[in-house]
Write a structure and sequence with these properties.
Elements (H helix, E strand, L loop, with lengths): L2 H11 L12 E6 L2 E7 L8 H9 L7 E4 L13 H8 L3 E4 L11 H8 L3 E4 L4 H7 L1 H9 L3 E8 L4 E3 L15 H12 L3 E5 H7 L16 E5 L10 H4 L5 E5 L5 H9 L3 E4 L9 H10 L4 E4 L3 H10 L4 E6 L10 E2 L15 E10 L2 E8 L4
Parallel strand pairs: 3-4, 4-5, 6-12, 6-13, 8-9, 8-12, 9-10, 10-11
Antiparallel strand pairs: 1-2, 1-3, 7-14, 13-16, 15-16
Length: 370
């Protein structure tokens, strides 16, 4: 890969967690073989990566080459189109790894550049990295729904909890501190996180992003809670700053709802036909509000419900060098399960990640439901 394109992609990656619902974009201006301008987009910074790189380059941008991690935008959003700034700066050539799938762009940026006499080169050697950086954005633009990732920490025999673990007082984690720190990175790169009320009652979890890094918007913490059992004194409720959503049903107590809403908790009736809180309803709500990604960190029952519903797009399972065994230890996905091996839920494009000594993670895409 061209080292200047690599640098543009590296700059784009610095914006992860800081750009949603926009893509993460990095740009490098090169003149006579030297970098004269760099930039990457963050929501707080408003200006896109291309504009920041052009501003740093100043008059040296005229006649130079712009390397950018994604097709420059050609439409008005919070800012004018980046194409206008590129043309005004006198850029001679633009090199990018891929087209923007946003229907408002989708090749129009490249077309406008070519029509204006700017040379355009699509360098596909960087396409895979560019797609990985903006995986949630690309998925949202192509499907109209957030990218849903099911995350779990499991033993080698697929267990997530032992029968006599102390509720709310974790004395022995399944995975290492290194793995748990890695999870925080996944949370930071996610727009929303979901769990079930059973996990909240057992662990009194916070579900927050503990990286301390800048975000474009707060991590939306979501609880599936059919009967609205979320305790007002739970960590989730007491730490709420308009960033907690409870998906419940019409059977929930109006008094409980009123009390939680008074604390800033958002309560939505998202109900399945069987009277349970709807995961699909949550995903559809997030899509309407342009949340690009949802990570699920839940218990065995919710995990299976997510898998069986077809709402999950990916898995990210952390494996610890431990075996629990037994019939009472909870599997990563409980519920009814599949009755025949031939009906197993399948995954593809499996990636293995080394996390810590003797620990690894499996990242994979789920096969669509037939």
């Amino acid at each position: 890969m061209d080292p200047f394109l690599q640098e543009a992609l590296d700059l784009a990656a610095q914006g992860l967690g800081r750009t949603s619902p926009n893509p993460a974009v990095g740009a490098v201006v090169v003149r006579d073989g030297a970098v004269v301008g760099r930039g990457f987009h963050t929501w707080a910074g408003v200006k896109h990566g291309e504009v920041l790189a052009l501003e740093e380059a100043g008059v040296q941008a005229t006649g130079s080459t712009l390397y950018v991690s994604l097709e420059p935008c050609s439409h008005h959003g919070r800012t004018p189109p980046c194409i206008d700034a590129i043309l005004a700066a006198g850029i001679r050539k633009v090199i990018a790894p891929m087209q923007d799938p946003n229907p408002q762009v989708a090749g129009r940026g490249f077309t406008r550049l070519r029509d204006a006499g700017v040379e355009v080169e699509i360098d596909s050697t960087g396409a895979a990295r560019a797609a990985e950086i903006n995986q949630p954005f690309l998925h949202f633009m192509r499907t109209g729904r957030p990218l849903v990732t099911l995350k779990a920490a499991v033993t080698l025999d697929g267990k997530i909890a032992a029968p006599e673990d102390e509720s709310g007082h974790v004395t022995e984690w399944i995975t290492s501190e290194t793995a748990r720190a890695h999870v925080q990175k996944l949370r930071h790169h996610s727009d929303a996180i979901l769990t079930g009320i059973g996990t909240v009652l057992a662990d009194n979890c916070r579900l927050n992003d503990r990286t301390g890094e800048e975000r474009s918007r707060p991590l939306l913490r979501i609880v599936l809670d059919s009967l609205l059992r979320l305790p007002p004194d739970s960590h989730l409720a007491t730490s709420c700053k308009d960033d907690v959503l409870v998906a419940t049903t019409s059977a929930a107590s109006p008094e409980r709802r009123k009390r939680l809403e008074a604390m800033g908790v958002r309560v939505e009736i998202l109900e399945r036909r069987d009277g349970r809180a709807s995961i699909q309803g949550v995903v559809e709500l997030l899509a309407r509000e342009k949340y690009l990604s949802l990570m699920i960190e839940a218990g065995s029952k919710v995990n299976w419900a997510v898998l069986e519903s077809g709402m999950a797009d990916k898995i990210f399972f952390y494996y610890a060098p431990k075996i629990l065994g037994g019939m009472q230890s909870l599997p990563v996905a409980g519920g009814a399960g599949r009755k025949h091996r031939r009906d197993a839920i399948r995954v593809h494009d499996v990636k293995l990640h080394n996390i810590a000594k003797d620990e690894f993670a499996v990242e994979a895409w789920l096969e669509p439901r037939p």
